[in-house]
Amino acid sequence: MPGWPELIDKLIESVIRIVEVEANLVRATVANVATAAVEHLLSRITVGIIFLYGFVCLLCSVIFFLHKWLDWWMAFGAVGAFLVVTSICIGAFWAPRWSPKT
Predict the structure, then answer these.
(1) How confident is the model at residue 102 (pLDDT cuts 50, 70, 90)?
(2) Do the beta carbons of residue 68 and residue 56 sit within 8 Å?
(3) Under a CB-based contact definition with an 8 Å cutoff, are residues 18 and 25 in contact?
(4) Looking at residue 98, what is its pLDDT?
(5) Cα–Cα dist 98/37, whole Å
(6) Lowest mean pLDDT across 62-66, 68-72, 83-87, 89-93
(7) Nearest to 83 by CA among 63, 53, 69
(8) Does the residue 102 lie in any domain?
(9) Comparing C-alpha atoms, which of 59, 67, 49, 65 is closest to residue 83?
(10) Helices in the chain by DSSP H: which ranges?
């Protein structure tokens, strides 16, 4: 039958092994969450840049189209007013939806 020193030694070794396994599990989980967050952020930035370029081209075409009937300042004003109203509507209803892959 083992004595108290051996039992305490085994207890400490068991606790250390449990702590090591839990630390590895937390490290793996944090790594997965961080990877998912970075992938999500990069994809959103890429889509945002593509959207921005397309939007600028579309905006220029609308301004040139309106300039056929309106002066330049009126064409820019009409498009600007439309963009302000649109951005307010989008800002009121848009909320980021993100959940990490676990």
Answers:
(1) low
(2) no
(3) no
(4) 58
(5) 9
(6) 89-93
(7) 63
(8) no
(9) 59
(10) 4-66, 72-93
pLDDT computed for residue 68 by the predictor: 85
- Domain membership flag for residue 98: no
- Residue 78 one-letter amino acid: A
Residues 14 and 61: their CA atoms lie apart, in Å, by: 71
pTM of the model: 0.50
76 lies in which domain range?
A: 4-93
Count of domains in the chain?
1
99 lies in some domain: no
CA distance 51 to 95: 18
Q: Is the pLDDT of residue 1 over 70?
A: no
Q: Six-digit token pair at 2? A: 């083992």
How many angstroms from the chain centroid is the CA of residue 1?
59
